[in-house]
Design a protein that fits this description.
heterotrimer; A mainly alpha (369); B alpha/beta (250); C mainly alpha (322); A: 369 residues; B: 250 residues; alpha/beta; 34% helix; CRISPR-associated protein Cas5 (chain C); Iron ABC transporter ATP-binding protein (chain B); ATP-binding (chain B)
């Protein structure tokens, strides 16, 4: 089936990666085109997966009932998946570029958890509010959370690449703790849990359109891609080129926050997407932001779509929420990436600098204690 | 202690390639060589800190693999460069760990005598109740040496003992190594970066290059223009000072 | 030396008295004498739960920190408790809700513990060796693993037959107000067995803190000892998780408080201190929650909230200077 061809893509990446290591970079456009074709095939496939069978013939025959299902449920779902996949991946990419750290993403940068807090705040102060209000509040909180995290992390001038995601995760945990506390207090535990698990099965026409916000935001991101790249190179570097780093930084993070908020409100939480996709694409495409944005978008959409199809197929007629599928696949891939970084060739260098650093950390810790 | 055809590799790269030699007993031996020559690795393998991929390390005729760890620790002591302790530990407590191989956690009166004399030997009496992390680099290094003395072993291995020390403390350290050998009769083996220290304070030098043993011999045999040039790819001038070769490079 | 020794003994004394007082306070505050027996029948299991949690988490955290030579990491941050929940889910899944293993709570508990001991030691042992005991990598991978384990158990739970799901929920959901009563005695037996079986390794902790090279130099079979300590840590965490549910940050808080109180490397004191502090915090917290908040929240929420902040503070303190 189509899934097998997905595996073959992955194989192809690997192959390509090896070739890159051998110094013979193949024309990567062929991969981009191939992924795009896959995306189209799988998208069409996706529309026809579900409890009620829909056939192409029926639709062309003008079967009203089936066209309705298509328009009310299947098509919105597909669009939401595509927007989410592209949106989260690009959000992750922007954060990684701005922070110059490959392990930062909306999940590991407190953006998602602050957006969740926003949803909770909205449930408490305006229980019946529409989706627009919800998104705005989630946007405000997630932007505050992300800004303060990045500010905090930059103030500390972290030298260790691992520290930043670690602090982000803990930051997210603290915010999550606040969320849990209030949801206990107001008895919202259950409804919150239901909203937070990323799930496309509840997407129907009229309740998800806010996710389209992703489209203009991504266009903006495309336009400013180079600026993000430059700011990531360092404050002085940016100033030297006549760019105000703070403006670009805040602008970029705001785009991330808005993308995340609109997705958390409509779809729910999808962890790791923003972390995994840019890193996987970077394996065969390099780190230059503009050149890889298209690939990241397509691959992000493709990855999300595949995970969604898996979730629907595995235990049909029931389905597994996409958050769980990505949680499993994503964390395995993430750990794989980490271990790849620890591969013997680089190991010695990394280890030594780490060791010295840890020693310093401990010394200073003791001195204070 | 005898090393036979030692082999260690990381991936494809052979860090230590069929190295064989014997540490002369009751002498000071220095291991020198450019970065990545494998000298520290050999030291670490010889003292069982890291595993090897081939060859043998024979101690008193028996491979160190077949020794009981505890027995070995009464014969061999090793001091490495990265000692990050984040416990609240006083100098005296640190030195008392040197008696661990003999009595475990419960030290006897005799053990404490060893501890006290080691502290005295290293002139650490005034610091003995200070915490390790309150000491300067030189004092901390002396505290560790005191622990090794308390451990009361025949062999003492020091991995870059002068690392991070200033000139005064470095030369102090080297004199200490000499005294361990001359006064206490220990076999001392060190990895050194500073070749003139090796020349002035040791009896034998073991020169490594690219994972292989390049030259092993007395100080005079190693400290000459030809060998040093081959080792470091730099032109050396050898002067004579107090009957010891002194190398100068530029 | 003797001076600081006395001081440490005194601190242990004070902490013991405080923990007994808080235990008594928890047991007797606001008891309606008419329903004395009933009140006791509710409170005593909770007291047992708190004691078990304090002992397990307190000792395991100190042991773990010493092994990995770092004060900001505790076993729960590495997803050990999510692994335990996953194991229980898998046991349910494989054997089904009607098998004897699952029906008898004691057997289920023991089977899960054994599987936990083996798998967790294998997984985390591999992780440590692979990252060469680099704390930051271990921590990051561990946090991700927690997501991984939780996702798999959630996925399995969704696939499960609703009846199995219900009984699974009954058996794995526990908290300080919902202590797993059937296994209190078994837990205590296990704890004692663990401390007897691993007493030699635990006695080596003082030397272990000198670092890997020094420990080997002093004649410790490092890798073997580390594996055994790791195994006892995972078992202790599994027991705590199964009795009172996951409380990730408790270990971090109490281990560090204990290290602040006792300025020593001696693990006897550090572990005792950590246990006592843990017990005091849990009793006090439970009193406040039951009598002030009247159960409107749970203690783990507070602990995780403050623990997270405390963690950030520790990182900042350690890093900010550099």
């Amino acid at each position: 089936m189509t899934l097998i061809s997905v595996i073959s893509i992955i194989e192809k990446y690997k192959e390509n990666n090896y070739q890159k290591e051998l110094g013979t970079i193949k024309n990567t456009y062929s991969i981009t085109i191939f992924m795009f074709l896959m995306l189209i095939v799988l998208s069409i496939q996706s529309i026809f997966i579900g409890v009620i069978d829909i056939s192409v013939a029926d639709i062309f025959a003008g079967n009203f009932h089936e066209i309705n299902i298509l328009l009310i449920s299947r098509l919105p779902r597909l669009l939401a998946i595509l927007c989410t996949g592209v949106g989260m991946s690009i959000a992750g990419l922007i954060m990684q570029q701005l922070c110059m750290n490959k392990f930062v993403s909306p999940t590991t940068g407190a953006t998602i958890s602050s957006a969740q807090l926003g949803v909770l705040v909205c449930m408490i102060i305006a229980p019946g509010a529409g989706i627009l209000t919800k998104t705005s509040i989630a946007f405000v909180t997630s932007i505050l959370g992300t800004w303060s995290f990045v500010f905090f992390a930059q103030k500390m001038k972290l030298k260790d690449a691992i520290m930043m995601p670690l602090i982000g995760i803990m930051f997210g945990n603290v915010i999550g703790g606040i969320t849990t506390y209030f949801s206990y207090k107001y008895g919202l535990m259950q409804s919150l849990n239901a909203t937070f698990v990323g799930d496309f099965s509840l997407i129907i026409r009229g309740r998800y359109e806010i996710v389209f916000l992703v489209v203009p935001l991504i266009i903006i991101a495309y336009i400013y891609a180079n600026q993000f790249n430059i700011v990531g190179m360092g404050e002085n570097f940016a100033k030297n080129l006549g760019i105000n780093p703070n403006v670009v930084m805040f602008g970029g993070l705001s785009i991330v926050a808005l993308i995340t908020a609109s997705i958390v409100v409509t779809v729910g939480t999808i962890s790791y997407l923003g972390l995994i996709v840019p890193n996987l694409v970077a394996l065969f495409r390099g780190d230059k932001i503009r050149g890889s944005m298209l690939d990241i978008s397509i691959f992000g959409a493709l990855f999300t779509l595949v995970c969604d199809i898996l979730g629907r197929v595995l235990i049909a007629p029931y389905e597994l929420p996409i958050d769980l599928i990505i949680g499993i696949l994503g964390s395995v891939l993430f750990i794989g990436l980490m271990f790849k970084k620890l591969s013997p060739a680089k190991k010695i260098k990394v280890k030594q600098s780490k060791k010295i650093e840890t020693i310093n950390v401990m010394k200073s810790g003791e001195a204070n204690a | 202690m005898k090393i036979v055809n030692l082999l260690k590799q990381y991936g494809e790269k052979k860090v230590v390639d069929t190295v064989s030699f014997e540490f002369p007993k009751g002498k000071v031996t220095s291991m020198i060589g450019p970065n990545g020559a494998g000298k520290s690795t050999v030291l670490n393998i010889a003292t069982r800190l890291i595993p090897r991929d081939g060859g043998q390390v024979l101690f008193e005729g028996k491979d160190i693999k077949d020794w009981k760890n505890k027995e070995l620790s009464k014969k061999i002591a090793i001091l490495t460069q990265s000692n990050n302790i984040q416990m609240k530990l006083t100098v005296r407590e640190l030195v008392s760990f040197g008696r661990f191989p003999y009595s475990g956690n419960r030290l006897t009166k005799e053990d404490w005598e060893h501890v006290d004399s080691a502290i005295k030997y290293m002139e650490l009496e005034e610091f003995e109740n200070r915490f390790i992390d309150q000491l300067s680099g030189g004092q901390r290094q002396r505290a560790y040496i005191a622990m090794v003395i308390a451990q009361d072993t025949e062999y003492v291995f020091l991995d870059e003992p002068t690392n991070n020390l200033d000139i005064y403390h470095s030369s102090n350290m080297m004199q200490m190594a000499r005294r361990l050998c001359d006064e206490l009769g220990k076999t001392v083996v060190m990895v050194l970066h500073e070749i003139n220290f090796a020349s002035f304070y040791s009896d034998y030098i073991c020169a490594f290059k690219d994972g292989k043993l390049h030259t092993f011999g007395t100080v005079e045999e190693v400290m000459n223009k030809k060998v040093l040039k081959e080792l470091y790819n730099v032109d050396f001038e050898i002067l004579n000072m107090n009957n010891k070769p002194l190398s100068v490079f530029y | 030396m003797p001076e600081s020794l006395n001081k440490n003994r005194n601190i242990v004394m004070i902490l013991s008295v405080l923990s007994i007082l808080s235990l008594l306070a928890y047991q007797f505050i606001d008891v309606n004498m008419k329903f004395f027996d009933y009140a006791m029948s509710i409170r005593i299991p909770r007291i047992m739960g708190i004691l078990i949690a304090g002992i397990c988490i307190g000792t395991a955290s100190i042991m773990f920190q010493s092994v990995i030579n770092n004060r900001i990491v505790t076993p729960c941050l590495l997803g050990m408790n999510s692994l335990y929940i996953l194991i229980q889910t898998i046991v349910f899944f494989v054997f089904g809700a009607t098998s004897i293993i699952v029906l008898n709570e004691n057997i289920l508990f023991i089977v899960s513990l054994v599987i936990m001991g083996v798998t967790a030691t294998a997984i985390y042992g591999y992780l440590f060796r692979k990252t060469n005991y680099n704390v930051l990598y271990v921590l990051l991978v561990g946090t991700v693993m927690a997501t991984f384990f939780t996702s798999i158990s959630n996925a399995l739970m969704r696939v499960m037959d609703p009846n199995e799901y219900d009984s699974l929920q009954d058996s794995i959901i526990s908290s300080f107000t919902q202590v797993d009563e059937a296994n209190i005695a078994v837990s205590f037996v296990f704890i004692i067995l663990i401390f007897i079986a691993f007493r030699k390794e635990i006695a080596l902790l003082d030397v272990i803190t000198l670092g890997k090279n020094q420990a080997i130099n002093l004649g410790v079979d490092y890798d073997k000892v580390i594996m055994k300590i790791l195994m006892s840590v995972t078992l202790l965490i599994a027991i705590a998780t199964s009795m009172v549910g996951p409380i990730s940050f408790l270990g971090l808080i109490i281990a560090n408080i204990s290290r602040q109180l006792f300025k020593t490397y001696k693990h006897t004191y550090l572990m005792a201190g950590s246990v006592l502090v843990g017990v005091i915090i849990l009793f006090m917290g439970q009193i406040v929650i039951e009598h002030v908040f009247s159960y409107s929240t749970v203690i783990s929420v507070f602990i995780n909230l403050f623990g997270g902040i405390y963690f950030l503070y520790l990182i900042m303190k350690n890093k900010g200077v550099a």
